[in-house]
Amino acid sequence: MKRSALLAVAFALAALTAGSAFAQTTVTIATVNNPDMQVMQELSTRFEAENPDVDLEWLVLDEGTLRSRVTTDAATGSASFDIVTVGAYDTPLWGANDWLLSIEQLAEQYPGAAEGYDFADLLPAIRDGLSYQGVLFAVPFYGESSFTMYNRRILDEAGLTMPDAPTWEEVAEIACAVHDPANGITGIALRGKPGWGDNMAPITTVVNTFGGQWFDAEGVPQIDSPEWHAAISFYADLVQRCGPAGVTGVSFPEALALMSQGRAAIWVDATVAAGFLAGSPAGPDIDHALAPVGPVAKGNQWLWSWNLGIPSTSDAAEAAFRFLMWATSKDYIELVAEEKGWAAVPPGTRISTYQRPEYLAAAPFAEMVLGAIQAADPLDATAEPQVAPGVQFVQIPEFQGIGADVAQVVAEILAGDTDVASGLQRAQRIAAEAMQDAGYY
Amino acid sequence: MSMQASVPAPGRRIGEGRRFLSAPALIYLILVTQIPFAMTIWFAFTNWNLLRPASAGFIGWDSMFRNFARILQNPDFYTVLFNTLYLTIAVAVLTFAFGMAFALLLDRPFPGRAIARTLLISPFLMMPVASSVVWKNLLLEPSFGLSAWVFRSLGLTSVYLVQEAPMLSIIGIVSWQWTPFVMLILLAGLQSLPDDVVEAAQLDGAGPIAQFRYVTLPHLRRFIEIAMLLEVIFILNIFGHIFVVTSGGPGIQTTNLPYQIFLEAFSRWNIGRASTYGIFAIILANLVIIAFLQVLRRKREEETA
């Protein structure tokens, strides 16, 4: 009896000392709740097994909540997170504010973690978008561009073919020819739900390729220009005549639902959609073309990425960096392929992914996606120079507010509540006020 | 209203030194209410965009005037103001009507009264976000929700009420949550109604309606005032329901002032503008409460006259 009690105490002591000799570093990660990130969280137990000294804690939020949470956190200097998920729009702005640690410096400081990472393998278009004044502030987790997806069966039945590089005129013609709401077929699914990341993403690409732009080189808004007028008139006319009912409620998920059930003939949206569509009922009928162009052949394909960065307030930068390198490495992509199949690997980050025959076989649209990402140029997306880079957004802090307000006006136009001219005049006034208040001119 | 006069005035006979006993509470209150308020006013003098830390500096009257002018010139502001008042008044009226009805019913003895009372109180005990999720995703869901079943049972096609009538949905959900609050206070009032007064009224030949009008209502006046005042203060600040159910949409159809402040600060990063909206919210709350008290006072004067 006595002996066993002594033994128990001895064991307890041993356990205690072992525990203290093995200090755990907690790394808190804030990320967005989309499928690729959920896979990352699931597979992160592998990382913890390989790095027993690191304990990962997750905060998974929807895009809007995540953005407001991590931004207020950074702006107020509170150190809640060791790794944050930041979008392509936010990363350089954060870098400019010194809110993120430089990735290159971390790689120099902790060469062990960066070993075999191969920075040169990151897609240059994506990588450049995450730099501010040549300094890389985050590593991409997945990237996307935009292109045209269409239901070949519906087009075939109407005896129509989609060119590989269509113009908006051609797309509109085909869409309206197959538009048949009586039989539940929508000519074209396009976003109309107000939001700078919702309707304004595709609409900005249309504006770009119609020769318009948000601002000039000084930051003076150009929204009441003839080019905007032409682009918005075109878009509004297209969705009103040949688009889904209740277009101001349609964003990515709604359009995806229409398309995957074969109830929409054409859809111009994010390239990641192709992966979701491939597994849908309409999957076998879906084919792909480049994003449509208008009179000006640029700015028609957008560029977006979700990225991981380390806030400068982190007190576990070393452990966080180790996870960052793990989660965006080639090995991680192999791991996802092994566990979930090649179609599920995070796309749009590494050249090597697109050299794998297994991936090209699982994702027949991959080459077109790669081409779109490489062709998208945030530094040259508009006919005339613009105040800051960006294809479907403009990389200035004020854009989020202006974009949200203008998106609201555009939604009114799409719903037919406001005419194009007076709507754009109002949008111009809103944007001009905001830019003047911010001191651009 | 001689009840108050008969209560000895507090503090008179107690030593002056003991007043310091309330100091910690007072200091705490100042810390947690007045400092944020002062900060709000300070931020209204700035042009701070959260993504531009350098813009956090004090600018002065120019910035303050501009923040005010921009808001007053913005047609959306008036929609938001209207939404705020509409929501508050509609909820106040609905919760008063239902709260009074339930309180009167619960004031009568019947088997299972305790259970009925607990059940009726439960909506108020739910967290706003939780009840909003239940309403949005279980009760009003258009394909498998309770509302879909009701519509189908009536032989109608199911509609998504949150989309078809967003403001009415919010009003309904908030009223559902706040009815028990009014009911509880009125029930406490009803139960404090002396039996002899009721008996006297009955002996005088007053029917149920006359009893309610001339005995119960005057007795309940104080309770109604308290319930309505507290409720109006809380409903002006409703946020969670809107955030979960409609996110202020479609458009700005269900955006009230608190939600507008949230959007300004956390989706546009415009702290200066958000703080200015905050000042408007404070002014509005005070105006509503002053108007409310004024109406009540006039009514009381009319009655005593």
Structural description of this entry:
The complex is a heterodimer of chains A (441) and B (305). Chain A has 441 residues and is an alpha/beta fold. Chain A has two domains: 179 residues, Periplasmic binding protein-like II (D-Maltodextrin-Binding Protein, domain 2, 3-Layer(aba) Sandwich); 220 residues, Periplasmic binding protein-like II (D-Maltodextrin-Binding Protein, domain 2), CATH 3.40.190. Chain A is 46% helix and 13% strand. Chain A is built from 19 helices and eleven strands. In chain A, strands 2-1-3-11-6 form a five-stranded mixed beta sheet. A four-stranded mixed beta sheet of chain A has the order 8-9-7-10, with helices on both faces. A two-stranded antiparallel ribbon of chain A has the order 4-5. In chain A, α10 packs across α11 and α18 packs antiparallel against α19. The radius of gyration of chain A is 24 Å and the shape is globular. Chain A starts with a helix and ends with a helix. About 2% of the residues of chain A have low confidence. Chain B has 305 residues and is mainly alpha-helical. Chain B has a single domain, classed as MetI-like fold, CATH 1.10.3720. In chain B, α4 runs antiparallel to α11. The longest helix of chain B has 34 residues. Chain B starts with a helix and ends with a helix. Classes of the chains: A alpha/beta (441), B mainly alpha (305). At the A-B interface, α3 and α18 of A face loops of B.
